[in-house]
Design brief:
This protein is of the alpha+beta class and 159 residues long. The chain contains six helices and four strands, in the order H-H-H-H-E-E-H-E-H-E. It binds zinc ion. The site of zinc ion has 9 residues, from helix 6.
Length: 159
């Protein structure tokens, strides 16, 4: 799933709807950006769960990294390390999360992103915290890279 592309298409669709224009071809584009159905469904599930974890809004964006760490620890989602945080993105590494827990170190290799459930979960949590629409993408999966962690990027939606 290409969240960045999907996000751009959704913004265009919104603008076209507002201007009374057709969105037919954009629906096809959005479908392609969505990619594999299962990946999209897992993202959706994770996102729904993220919005159900009793996340409290935070006043100051500089506290996002700590607030993310606390939520991930509270719900035993995995071990997290925040590698970058700005007003546009949060980048982090996650270990021991449910999507790969039973698969890692068993010689299984995937092509591309595998942990879309956690990507959706992170987006849902951060969205609740900040009240800003977010999307998240797994940048590098441990099942692909052979590293001990998966890397995620959460992007704050800018119009
Ligand atoms: Zn992964």
């Amino acid at each position: 799933m290409d969240r960045q592309l999907l996000s751009k298409i959704l913004v265009q669709m919104r603008n076209h709807l507002k201007e009374g224009k057709e969105i037919g071809d954009m629906k096809v584009g959005a479908l392609l950006a969505l990619g594999h159905q299962l990946e999209a469904i897992f993202y959706y599930l994770g996102h729904e769960l993220g919005t159900h974890l009793n996340v409290k809004p935070i006043g100051d964006v500089t506290t996002i990294p700590n607030a993310i760490k606390e939520k991930i620890a509270e719900f035993n989602i995995g071990d997290v390390e925040i590698t970058e945080s700005s007003e546009e993105i949060v980048q982090l590494r996650l270990k021991g999360h449910s999507s790969i827990k039973d698969l890692i170190n068993k010689g299984i290799k995937t092509e591309g992103s595998f942990c879309s459930f956690e990507a959706g979960l992170l987006a849902g949590i951060v969205e609740k915290m900040t009240n800003i629409h977010c999307f998240a993408q797994e940048v590098e999966c441990s099942l692909q890279s052979g590293k001990s962690y998966c890397e995620f990027m959460i992007v704050f939606q800018q119009d």
